[in-house]
């Protein structure tokens, strides 16, 4: 993993001009994990974010053996750049180090394939593609007004094709945005008890441990409703999880 990190860091050095980012790179390359995290968290505190920044934070926390925070930042990196194979591989490695190894509810293979295709691009990339097709469509339609003969026929066929691609992009963007809006979090305490309802005196159903990913529902009186990948549900103290 170290070789991968070094290559990625060198690439980003040329494209990410934030001085705190470069300060973090220098600290990381000197194995100063605390310094790297402090520098990169400074950027996050300023409201900035990027897949590269989140990936680097994940690596720094992983080197500190703070696996829960490493998972949180790898997940955030993948939310911004779903196709990042390095972040996906490192996330898999980090997940192997946590206590809770939860088996997902089996799904049809075709549904899994469709979801993989849906997540291949981020909402931002799909929005850019949609704007591009709309721009091309406007150019073709505008050019048709001044063309004649075979050129006009070619522009008409091109317009139909581009309009079809724009519709597909719009549907894909809507589907992907709905998926991206799904709220998820990571358990950030060593052990967290999950209850049947949002009160301390309700039945304790099971316990979760640091680094476990949960789906989020409503929040009531300091408790958040969660759903696990295996279908179990319950309520967990809201301050014991952190949103991805």
Write the H/E string, N to C.
HHHHHHHHHEEEEEEE
Mean pLDDT: 90
Total number of beta strands? 7
Summed up, the helix count is 9
Largest sheet properties: 5 strands, antiparallel
Class by SSE composition: alpha+beta
Overall 3D shape: globular
Radius of gyration: 23 Å
- For the termini, the CA-CA separation is 23 Å
Strand content: 5-15%
Low-confidence stretches: 1-8
Q: Give the strand line-up of the largest sheet.
A: 6-5-4-1-7
Helix content: 55-70%
- List the quaternary state of the chains: single chain
Structure in words:
By secondary structure, the protein is α+β, with helices and mostly antiparallel strands. It contains 9 helices and 7 strands. The protein has helices at residues 2-13, 19-29, 33-45, 51-63, 67-80, 85-95, 109-118, 123-144, 149-180, and strands at 184-187, 191-195, 204-209, 213-220, 223-227, 233-237, 241-243. The strands form 2 sheets. The chain has a 5-stranded antiparallel β-sheet. The chain has a two-stranded antiparallel ribbon with strand order 2-3. It is globular and about 75 Å long.
């Amino acid at each position: 993993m170290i070789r991968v990190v070094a290559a990625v860091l060198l690439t980003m050095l040329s494209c990410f001009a934030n001085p705190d980012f470069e300060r973090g790179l220098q600290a990381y390359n000197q194995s100063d994990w605390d310094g790297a995290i402090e520098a990169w968290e400074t950027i996050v505190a300023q409201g900035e974010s990027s897949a590269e920044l989140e990936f680097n934070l994940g690596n720094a926390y992983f080197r500190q053996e703070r696996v829960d925070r490493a998972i949180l930042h790898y997940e955030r990196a993948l939310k911004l750049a779903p196709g990042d194979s390095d972040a996906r591989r490192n996330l898999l490695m980090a997940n192997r180090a946590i206590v809770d190894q939860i088996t997902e509810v089996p799904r049809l293979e075709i549904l899994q394939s469709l979801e993989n295709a849906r997540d291949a691009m981020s909402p931002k990339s799909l929005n850019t593609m949609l704007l591009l097709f709309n721009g091309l469509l406007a150019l073709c339609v505008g050019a048709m007004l001044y063309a004649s003969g075979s050129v006009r026929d070619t522009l008409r066929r091109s317009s139909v094709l581009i309009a079809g691609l724009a519709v597909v992009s719009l549907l894909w963007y809507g589907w992907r945005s709905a998926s991206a809006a799904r709220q998820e979090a990571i358990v950030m305490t060593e052990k967290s008890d999950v209850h049947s309802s949002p009160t301390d005196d309700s039945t304790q159903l099971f316990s979760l441990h640091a680094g476990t990913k949960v789906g989020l529902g409503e929040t009531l009186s300091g408790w958040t409703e969660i759903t696990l990948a295996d279908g179990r549900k319950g309520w967990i103290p809201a301050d014991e999880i952190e949103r991805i």
